[in-house]
Amino acid sequence: AERLQDERNQRIRLTIANRSLETHFQPIVDLRSGDAIGAEALSRFVREPIRPPNVWFAEAATLGLGVELELTALDMALGQLNRLPTGLYLSLNASAETIMSAEFRAVLTSASAERIVLELTEHAPVTDYLALARRIDELRSHGVRLAVDDAGSGFSSFSHVLNLKPDIIKLDTDLTRGIDKDPARQALGRALLTFGLEAYRTTIVAEGIETK
Q1: Fewest beta carbons within 10 Å, which of 81, 122, 143, 209?
Q2: Long-range contacts for 170-176 (Cβ within 8 Å, ≥24 apart)?
């Protein structure tokens, strides 16, 4: 068990040291105009073993290296911001622990804050919403916006929405996939849309739209 732990630790540390990641971009489209208005940065790992990114980040978190790996991914994504058309924003995934870290501010310093959206991920539960809200308000004062991911998929995302008043609410793929044929999903989607617009005047982003 100790040998396995050492191998996992070395694997994550080498990934960080060698920056063995690629950044892919998923377009975010305005359905009224059909124009791209933003892009979500997605990390893809190029080291063996080939696994989904959430598995890599989860493993890093269990080893106490989650923040370091996230910061590497964020830095690599921000390094490509100038490749995106100037009118597009860049959406970045970050855990509460990473957002609260001292190193996080340094990673963002070179970026155009008004083009950055932070997506709060679910790697770990939020233990202090007041402190997190203060940090997010500080980032907002520079132009950064906040998105809450996976709305409609669990209680924690609703807690994020109620405690952090996001600028963007993202409807989870589990909710949007098949919504055209499922009255229950349609009802929940309408409820979240109404809630977001009436409570916070927020933007709604629906993930997983694959069909007309």
Answers
A1: 143
A2: 170/119, 170/204, 170/205, 170/206, 170/207, 171/204, 171/205, 171/206, 171/207, 172/207, 172/208, 173/207, 173/208, 175/151, 176/206, 176/207, 176/208, 176/209
